[in-house]
Write a structure and sequence with these properties.
The chain has a four-stranded antiparallel β-sheet, with no helix packed on it. The chain has four helices and ten strands; from the N terminus they run ααββββββααββββ. The termini are far apart. By secondary structure, it is α+β, with helices and mostly antiparallel strands.
Length: about 180
């Protein structure tokens, strides 16, 4: 009986398909060909909040930055960079409480590592800007993301940008983050 069981297990192992090795994968991989420059524009958002005790709307508008140099991925595909116009507008009909234009170059000097700074200066785009609003509806700062477009891994650098001009790069350890996919 043990011999029969052993033969059944042995035959089951033989039926498993061996995974493809890297060489076989490389033979079948087609390198993407660059096309027209890609735009990574984020949709316009307007979010109700409070700022310094005043009811307001956090308005974030994004557009392609035609005046800045395009960046290329490892296959030569070009991507247009973005600029973001961020505003805090009072609920009374639009009195401007805060208004600023965000560009990639504003954040490069805040990158902690010199090597990363060089790579992101040449190959990253200003990907997204979102407001940080707490559970009480109070606006605190803008979350800013620089990204290497179409990277295999999530090659992002994250920053907090405050209305007083202060900026800080975030360091996120995904191994110890409680909800690493939250907000994605």
């Amino acid at each position: 009986m043990m011999a029969c069981l052993g033969m059944v297990l042995l035959s089951a192992c033989k039926d498993k398909e061996e995974p493809k090795d890297t060489a076989q994968y490389a033979e079948n991989f087609e390198i993407p060909r660059p096309g027209e420059p890609k735009s990574m524009v984020q949709a316009h958002t307007a979010t109700a909040a409070k700022w310094e005790g005043v009811a307001c709307t956090v308005d974030i508008a994004c557009q392609s930055a035609d005046s800045t140099q395009m960046v290329k991925d490892e296959f030569g595909q070009e991507y247009m960079d973005n600029v973001f116009d961020v505003s805090l507008l009072k609920k009374d009909g639009g009195t401007v409480l805060f208004n600023h234009r965000l560009t990639k170059s504003m954040f490069l000097s805040y990158i902690k590592e010199e090597r990363e700074r060089q790579v992101y200066a040449q190959k990253a785009v200003l990907k997204s800007v979102t407001p940080e609003i707490d559970e009480n509806g109070v606006f605190h700062y803008f979350n800013v993301c620089l990204q290497l477009p179409d990277a295999v891994d999530d090659d992002n650098l994250l920053f907090n940008y405050y209305t007083n001009g202060k900026c800080e790069q975030l360091t996120i350890d995904y191994m110890y983050e409680e909800n690493p996919d939250e907000g994605v």
